[in-house]
Amino acid sequence: MIKVTEKAGAITFAVRVQPRASESRVLGDFEGVLKVRLAAPPVDGAANAELIKLIAGLFEVGKSQVEIRAGATGRQKLVRVHGFATADALRVLTAVKELSEE
Question: Of all residues in the chain, what percent are helix, strand and coil, respectively (each to 5)?
């Protein structure tokens, strides 16, 4: 299960990215971390922008509500989604896990 923390009306969780993939998609839970493939290369913030877009689409929020709190230059990142509660986040992440297992 992906570890999600909630504070001040936002959720935070870890993401492990694989840049330069053939397509951008969420793979699911990998040792308590959300694993994501990104089509964008890790150059000039392109992969981070793609990650924000992907997470915003996953949680159905605006891109301005998603921020990378730590790890902007690495594969392991800490992402915060504003305006989301832990229970709602766990529903979304559980649905992702079920889709990745099919």
Answer: 30, 35, 30
